């Protein structure tokens, strides 16, 4: 499999890293829709099972198309190893659960994607793994939550949907001093704008469903880390429990990576233009955009991210009724709970992604009844701005 020399820039790696060409010399990466593999001799088969022969055994374990996707992600992220999964949640659940046992303790930022919160808050305690939720912005809370049995810190940054930015190097340092590892869900930042491993995190997880596909076609996830973490905690767990990605989906995601850089840059430029227009709009009570000087963690954004976000958060004056009017009036941006797509998507978190939370918990996270999350797509920015300003007239 071709490895890119270390001096290639990310854009080049996104196109070339990990390409495994068959004997036919295809330009575009091949899709290997195969469950299993055959062996030339019984001796070769034995060697493969012993791990002495590097080929493939079974597509629950690995597959050439899946291996290409993993290799491209490894080189983009600066990781040593990776394992892809059927969905982002399969990746998150495996990264958190696989290394733990009853009696261990997990600390997580409270501002989590709904299903991540379920895993940490509801699922782990059923297996005797205690969890503490903290305000991720408050470093003292991370510090105070540490116990002798704390094994994992987990966070998302920027957070969903309020786009707060958590201090990854500082939180990694607290974790490491306490003998814990830091797992970062980097979906909102994308690998284009933030590299958690370089910032001190031990494990990075993605829902590849979002920007990595970015065209609304398939689900997928990936865990990236050191060779040792994968070997010790992930490799066997995934092989035996089987949350494997389909080779077809891995192929879609592999091809998605080729355009990830251009898409994320274009979507970020558009999101930043939308944020600038909304910032001074009379119907908007609050605007959050990482990358603007008025973002609450603007200095930290500069320090740990290479760019802003493809998402914009804003609170419409007039609460839920006003927010619903805006959503219903939009012609171009469509109502959805998804994000990172070529098509602009709008979400009302209070009634969708975060409806499971108690109203007071939503308020503590800064998710008001009028809060809208806007995921900028690849449409022309002016069309989206015209669509939004026309809808806001009706708010
Ligand atoms: C969507 C998402 C997930 C889950 O990914 P799926 O591919 O839908 O399983 C996890 N974390 C974050 C931050 C997400 O946005």
Secondary-structure blueprint:
Elements: H1 10-16, H2 42-50, H3 64-77, E1 81-85, H4 88-97, E2 105-109, H5 114-126, E3 130-134, H6 139-145, E4 150-156, H7 168-177, E5 181-185, H8 190-193, E6 203-207, H9 209-213, E7 221-225, H10 227-241, H11 247-279, E8 284-288, H12 298-304, E9 311-316, H13 319-329, E10 334-335, E11 345-347, H14 359-364, E12 371-375, H15 381-393
Parallel strand pairs: 2-3, 2-4, 4-5, 5-6, 10-11
Antiparallel strand pairs: 1-7, 6-7, 8-9, 9-12, 11-12
Helix pairs in contact: 1-3, 1-11, 3-11, 4-5, 11-15, 13-15
Residues 87-89, 92, 113, 115-116, 156, 160, 185, 187-188, 207, 209-210, 219, 221 line the site of pyridoxal-5'-phosphate.
What does this protein structure show overall?
With 395 residues, the protein is an alpha/beta fold. The chain has helices spanning 10-16, 42-50, 64-77, 88-97, 114-126, 139-145, 168-177, 190-193, 209-213, 227-241, 247-279, 298-304, 319-329, 359-364, 381-393, and strands spanning 81-85, 105-109, 130-134, 150-156, 181-185, 203-207, 221-225, 284-288, 311-316, 334-335, 345-347, 371-375. The protein has two domains: 8-258, Type I PLP-dependent aspartate aminotransferase-like (Major domain) (Aspartate Aminotransferase, domain 2, 3-Layer(aba) Sandwich); 260-393, Aspartate Aminotransferase, domain 1. Strands 1-7-6-5-4-2-3 form a seven-stranded mixed beta sheet, with helices on both faces. It starts with 9 loop residues before the first helix and ends with a helix. The mean pLDDT is 96. Pyridoxal-5'-phosphate binds at residues 87-89, 92, 113, 115-116, 156, 160, 185, 187-188, 207, 209-210, 219, 221.
């Amino acid at each position: 499999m071709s490895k890119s020399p270390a001096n290639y820039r990310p854009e080049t790696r996104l196109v070339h890293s990990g390409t495994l060409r068959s004997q036919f010399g295809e330009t575009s990466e091949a899709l290997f829709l195969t469950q299993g593999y055959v062996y030339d001799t019984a001796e070769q088969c034995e060697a493969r099972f012993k791990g002495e022969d590097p080929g493939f055994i079974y597509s629950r374990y690995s597959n050439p198309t899946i291996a290409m996707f993993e290799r491209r992600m490894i080189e983009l992220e600066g990781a040593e190893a990776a394992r892809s999964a059927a969905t982002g949640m399969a990746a998150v659940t495996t990264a958190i659960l696989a290394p733990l046992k009853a009696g261990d303790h997990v600390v997580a930022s409270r501002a989590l994607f709904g299903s991540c919160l379920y895993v940490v808050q509801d699922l782990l305690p059923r297996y005797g793994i205690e969890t503490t939720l903290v305000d991720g912005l408050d470093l003292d809370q991370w510090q105070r939550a540490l116990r002798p049995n704390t094994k994992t810190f987990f966070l998302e940054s920027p957070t969903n949907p309020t786009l707060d930015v958590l201090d990854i190097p500082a939180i990694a340092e607290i974790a490491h001093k306490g003998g814990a590892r830091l797992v970062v869900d980097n979906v909102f930042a994308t690998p284009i704008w933030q590299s958690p491993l370089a910032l001190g995190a031990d494990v990075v997880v993605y829902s590849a469903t979002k920007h990595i596909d970015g065209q609304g076609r398939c689900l997928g996830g990936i865990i990236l880390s050191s060779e040792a973490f994968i070997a010790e905690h992930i490799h066997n767990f995934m092989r035996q429990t089987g949350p494997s990605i389909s080779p077809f989906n891995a192929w879609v995601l592999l091809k998605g990576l080729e355009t990830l850089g251009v898409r994320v840059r274009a979507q970020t430029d558009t999101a930043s233009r939308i944020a600038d227009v909304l910032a001074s709009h009379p119907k908007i009570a609050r605007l959050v955009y990482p990358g603007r000087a008025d973002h609450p963690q603007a200095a930290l954004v500069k320090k740990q991210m290479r760019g802003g976000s493809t998402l914009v958060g804003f609170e419409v004056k007039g609460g839920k009724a006003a927010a619903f009017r805006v959503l219903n009036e939009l012609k171009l941006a469509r109502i959805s709970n998804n994000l990172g797509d070529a098509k602009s998507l709008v979400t009302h978190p209070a009634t969708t992604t975060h409806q499971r939370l108690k109203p007071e918990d939503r308020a503590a996270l800064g998710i008001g009844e009028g809060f809208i999350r806007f995921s900028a797509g690849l449409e022309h920015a002016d069309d989206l701005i015209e669509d939004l300003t026309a809808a806001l007239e009706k708010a």
